[in-house]
């Protein structure tokens, strides 16, 4: 008796026509603000081909139809096209500015009953909001005297899941002094490290698309927003939309920190430029328009 071979699925068609490439780039832009042009076509096609295969789709048209009706498939696609590579204490000069200058100015206008609200968006896989928490514990003597809320937000739900899990490779920890690794992490048998449960509990994570006012609308009265190394992937219109949304999320007198290659001055006239010894940051005017 001979067993029949199972039917083999047809090989998917991963070729992408010009009009499909333009249609997909427009779709991704409207969902994320990320811009891809003809110069990145090979990059886009590679990732689309990976998704077509991983999703078991028959080709681009089939995958695209699923993107419109299947939220899970859209989340997988966004994960494939967003950059989630970061590490602890990245651009730590801004963290030094936070504890040497910004928090003194913020607490000077707050009552003790009011929380200090810090927002890392996008937060990727959690390294940046956890870095803020570790930095405050190690470098701000008033950390136990104030109610501090740290929020990490990202458009990528897969990255947010990793952030909540709090497990990191050696590469993510490469900038952390080893005593801090020993203090705040537990080594796992596979060579990775799990962050301390108390630190995991100190950060609230949420999905937010910063070019979608519906997503950013619930977040208000932030004292400092860390929005680093994402606006460079947007076009001018998406950058202005993001800047306006983040402006609305800040408390009067609040600050926003961008990546070292980014400048709010070239995006929006709404913010004051603040030049401190450690970093250049941007401030929403206070009540009455004063910085």
What does this protein structure show overall?
- This protein is α/β, with parallel strands linked by helices and 291 residues long.
- The chain contains eleven helices and ten strands.
- The strands form two sheets. Strands 6-2-1-7-8-10-9 form a seven-stranded mixed beta sheet.
- Helix 2 (41-55) packs antiparallel against helix 4 (71-81) and helix 3 (60-69) packs across helix 4 (71-81).
- The longest helix has 17 residues, at 92-108.
- The protein is globular and about 60 Å long.
- Mean pLDDT is 91; it is low at 1-9.
Quick take:
The chain contains eleven helices and ten strands. It is an alpha/beta fold and 291 residues long. The longest helix is centred in the middle third of the chain and has 17 residues.
Q: What key attributes describe this structure?
A:
disordered N terminus; 10 strands; single chain; 291 residues; 3-stranded antiparallel sheet; 41% helix; 7-stranded mixed sheet; alpha/beta; 16% strand
